[in-house]
TrEMBL record:
PANTHER family: MUREIN HYDROLASE ACTIVATOR ENVC (PTHR21666:SF270), PEPTIDASE-RELATED (PTHR21666). CDD domains: M23_peptidase (cd12797). It comes from the Bacteria. InterPro entries: Cell_wall-bd_2 (IPR007253), Cell_wall_metabolism_enzyme (IPR050570), Dup_hybrid_motif (IPR011055), M23ase_b-sheet_dom (IPR016047). Residues 354-450 form the M23ase beta-sheet core domain. This is M23ase beta-sheet core domain-containing protein. Coiled coil: none annotated.
Length: 462
């Protein structure tokens, strides 16, 4: 059977009938990526309005398809390039989709697979182009009549884009693939965005994922552009989730998938987007510490693990965070210790202050680093502290960094950081008498001596 390219775009947005998650931890998994996608799709009731099918061997078509599936109320299943696994055929029969959308050309999903699928539905269409970028634009044109926002992700690699697909699905926004290292996006991408009425474009990932030149082009084209990035794939996903979801999903669900592969997150993004929940990325054996901080702040009633224990281990299911890593916040010796300062006496009497941190003699313009991973809870001017950054690390531990240089704060309020990530430059702002770092540690809200605290964690400040 040849692809049906005559049918009009789908554009009908249906409310998906999805089994909600009870409070607790759930795992949706099978022995391989195809079976895991089935376990995910089984949350959808039968008679779905649409089903998306993409290859399970590569990521690009599935990224765009996942957001489209969430938007129009259907799941995403994966197939082998040249044959539909028997279990996938059985799941399609159960879903009884009114329509199947095959994402990608015959080089990724063969004509034979298309014919197998055509026998399982009254309506089917292939949306493929000469490359992954054109295929994505065709999927978007079919699924979206309009969109106020759109995500832009690199088509070269998957890590930064996985959480974007779930977030886009929740927002009713499409995901456009671009050549992230190119100086511009193709004219058809700009035209597609304008045809949909897109006003805001969200870029997933840093400059190495989607070039600054592309960002400038999008701004010049008249779009409001926001970039969501972290120092790695895990923090980029968390940054996307923080911006899109905030605290709105408290008491609901959060999805967790491996950041080392794409398959489980693709099918999971269609479900997560369908229930307006974020998708976080994790290591196999533990949850990266800053991601654990974000999840604990969110406190979702249900955590949904995607993939088998060989992909996402039992420790993640139990909520185990990776060990906290500690780093020296700056170079330099201790020039001011924690505790009572020497009395200052005048003819009117003596007074004595208490130094609630330690001073490190960094000199001017030295890099200042986060002592451990966590979330920025303060970033700006704070009286005698001058330019100040405070980081919450979870478990009641916070660190503070004072007297940073004017223009020397490199982080923003709410940002998640990794241990050792640069947060600013040393200076002499506030009541400082010279360039140095004033470093504080809080435990349970109480300022404590940073030197022994850090020494117990393997960091000598002196």
């Amino acid at each position: 059977m040849s692809p049906d390219t005559t049918k009009p775009p789908f554009h009908a947005v249906a409310q998906a009938d999805i089994t909600p998650f009870a409070p607790g931890v759930h795992r949706l998994a099978g022995p391989d990526r195809f079976e895991t996608a089935i376990a995910i799709s089984q949350r959808f009731a039968a008679n779905v309005p649409v089903l998306y099918v993409a290859t399970g061997m590569d990521f690009p078509d599935g990224l765009t398809a996942a957001a489209a599936a969430a938007h129009v109320g259907g799941p995403l299943l994966l197939t082998q390039p040249d044959a539909v696994p028997a279990s996938v055929r059985e799941e399609i029969a159960r879903l009884a989709p009114a329509r199947i959308v095959v994402a990608g050309g015959e080089s990724v999903v063969s004509a034979g697979v298309y014919n197998e699928l055509a026998a399982l539905t009254p309506s089917i269409i292939r949306l493929g182009g000469v490359d992954r970028f054109e295929s994505g634009e065709r999927v978007i044109a079919d699924a979206f009549a309009s969109a106020a926002q759109a995500f832009v992700v690199t088509g070269r690699a998957f890590p930064d884009a996985l959480a974007a697909s779930a977030a886009a699905g929740a927002l009713g926004a499409p995901v456009f693939l671009v050549d992230g290292l190119a100086p511009s996006v193709r004219a058809s991408t700009i035209a597609s965005m304008r045809a949909l009425g897109v006003g805001t474009v969200r870029i997933a990932g840093g400059d190495s994922a989607v070039s600054p030149a592309i960002e400038r082009q999008l701004v010049s084209a008249g779009f409001a552009v926001a970039r969501h990035e972290g120092v790695d794939r895990y923090l980029t996903a968390a940054a996307i989730n923080q911006t899109v979801f905030g605290a709105a999903v408290a008491q609901s669900s959060a999805f967790i998938a491996t950041g080392s592969d794409f398959a489980d997150a693709l099918a999971g993004a269609a479900l997560a987007g369908g229930v307006a929940a974020p998708l976080y990325l994790t290591q196999s054996g533990c949850i990266p510490h800053p991601v654990s901080v974000a999840l604990n702040e969110l406190a979702p009633a249900a955590r949904v693990i995607l993939g088998s224990t060989g992909v996402v281990g039992e420790a993640v299911e139990q909520g185990t965070a990776c060990a906290m890593v500690w780093a020296k916040p700056a170079a330099g010796r201790i020039t001011g210790a924690f505790g009572p300062r020497a009395p200052i006496c005048t003819p009117g009497g003596c007074s004595q202050s208490f130094h609630r941190g330690i001073d490190l003699g960094t000199g001017c313009g030295a890099p200042i680093y986060a002592a451990s991973g966590g979330r920025v809870t303060s970033a700006g001017w704070l009286g005698t502290y001058g330019n100040w950054v405070k980081i919450a690390h979870g478990s009641g531990i916070d660190t503070g960094y004072a007297h940073l240089a004017n223009g020397g704060i490199l982080v923003r309020l709410g940002q998640l950081l990794r241990a050792g990530q640069q947060i600013g430059w040393s200076g002499a702002t506030g009541a400082a008498t010279g360039c140095h770092l004033h470093f504080e540690v809080y435990q349970g809200g109480v300022q404590i001596d940073p030197a022994p605290f850090m020494a117990l964690r393997g960091i000598r400040l002196g």
